[in-house]
Sequence to fold (175 residues):
Amino acid sequence: MEKEAPLTIKDGRVVTLRYLLRENDERGQVLEVMDNYYPFEFLFGTGSLLPAFEDKLKGLSERDYFTFTLAPDEAYGQPQAENIIDVPMSAFEMDGRVPDGMLAEGQTLTLKDDQGDPHTGRVVEWNKETVKMDFNHVMTGKTLHFSGQVLHIREATPEELARNHHIPADGIRRD
Fold:
């Protein structure tokens, strides 16, 4: 009896990974952990992930280990000055005042723009009139080192392909 070839990572397959993401190299600060209890599951090839991330995973099989590093220009790029803006203090007020503890250096806040779209940024500094917010991605300017393992690969369902997103076993989308 001929053994079936293992599935490999390619477009149209749902991939489940565990990984440790560190800054710079294998000894760097831990930025993110996706483990066996809370793995990273996604539909490969939809354009929703970093292209260089997908390039490094393409062709791997279940149980394969991986380790790779993405330079800032392969990941989230360099910080852009136009993404650091002064927001009027009034945008942070609730019932005429800014809640205690809301404004702290490094605090992450989500604000809506004029079209109602949410944007997440970090508080840089503030005065009584404005709050300087950095809306660059939190990983902008960082070298990202991934090490992990492919846990599972399966063919996407027709519904997942139509939605261009994987559907978890419990049916609850978490993105």
